């Protein structure tokens, strides 16, 4: 491929916001998104068309997807002679050694581990394109079950650390080398000028043993130049000296030395000092990487937040508004009105996903400012029940709404989409917990400036999870449970000035209660 023509990718992910995020990240790095698919089957359907295949240079697919996951998509692509040579990048947030081995056997080119930055994604894409569709490229001696980097658990163990010893006396260099080999890879420099070159070369030393008293350029000057160079500034330096006053020790440490050792060198003390500094360096490196990743995550979250608010929320709000207006006109046929309701229901469903992906993050940060308005809880509850009817029918569960003698009083002060998400979470959990031919009942209550929605089901909340039910990640008995349902519902209720509570016992079974401020407008 010419350098002037950008690489073209088919991206596959079942989450629309992730598809858009991948698209933005790739285009930002100079790539082109030739096509996008929501699952493996849709991707295969696209690749059946010759005009699509001609425009796709690589496939970038998420592992976990409905209908057809990333691994099955990979196998199907490799089994088809027309697509078998396409490089394939697998994106995933969790990779076990067994799954990695399965993907490698199936012909994956490389992995992209979530979370990632646009730069790290671009690096993986370019590397994958370089090696093509061959089984995952690994350096000689690499562990095929550890393709994402880090210390490999091979029989050879971690890589050997490099120690640079700087001394103008060859005998001193030999003493250090004998003390440190074979545990370390020892490099030597007989003056400061050579030491600076070796330190800046690749791979850089992990630690420098630096003699103070040297002709031409002494240890203090070498240290100063090391700290001035960004490529060598973070390398730990241990001063080695035959005689040093306390003031000189203080001056060296102030200048950036990490430790000092007095000659004659004692091997056990030397090794202990080196190991201590290497552990500190590893901790600092890990902290630096985590900080970079955290900053990248925050920026990515802000980009997604901005994208969702402008690119998804605004059109969704318009769709819901237009659908309501059409219903109020009164001239639609029954069939047209049914379609209008389905459009509106679909918009609310997508809104629920948006609330999970964006609003929850902002609420957790304390950045969310709710826009309060009157919300008819009866109408909204009925809408949630309609949206969840397919799930209820599949589980043979009946949804029952208890009539209230004052429905006009059941108006909350809140945000319609947030309350929809709260009720949908609680009702969905109740449906999934209820045995076949059971029922989930919803009833209302008002008074004292509050309105309440009670969701009742006959199944008991498992005792093992009751105390932490509203904690993030708390789940029980659900193989694919995220543990975000009750957690997010609680946060959303609280940001609206309300609350959620539950009781679960043999007498009353299980009842979740959502309490919200009542609307007092005229």
From TrEMBL:
Which parts of this chain are annotated as the region Disordered? 138-158
EC number from the UniProt entry: 2.7.13.3
Question: Which species is listed as the source?
Answer: Lamprobacter modestohalophilus
Ranges for domain Response regulatory come to: 8-129, 162-278
Q: Which reaction does it catalyse?
A: ATP + protein L-histidine = ADP + protein N-phospho-L-histidine
- Ranges where the Histidine kinase domain occurs: 307-520
Residue positions, PTM 4-aspartylphosphate: 62, 211
List the GO molecular function terms: phosphorelay sensor kinase activity
The record's keywords, sorted A to Z, are: Phosphoprotein
What top-tier enzyme class does this entry carry?
A: transferase
UniProt name for this protein: histidine kinase
SUPFAM superfamilies (UniProt xref): ATPase domain of HSP90 chaperone/DNA topoisomerase II/histidine kinase (SSF55874), CheY-like (SSF52172), Homodimeric domain of signal transducing histidine kinase (SSF47384)
InterPro entries referenced in this protein's UniProt entry, alphabetically: CheY-like_superfamily, HATPase_C_sf, HATPase_dom, His_kinase_dom, HisK_dim/P_dom, HisK_dim/P_sf, Sig_transdc_resp-reg_receiver
Entries under CDD domains matching the protein: HisKA
Among PANTHER family, the record links this protein to: HYBRID SIGNAL TRANSDUCTION HISTIDINE KINASE C, TWO-COMPONENT HISTIDINE KINASE
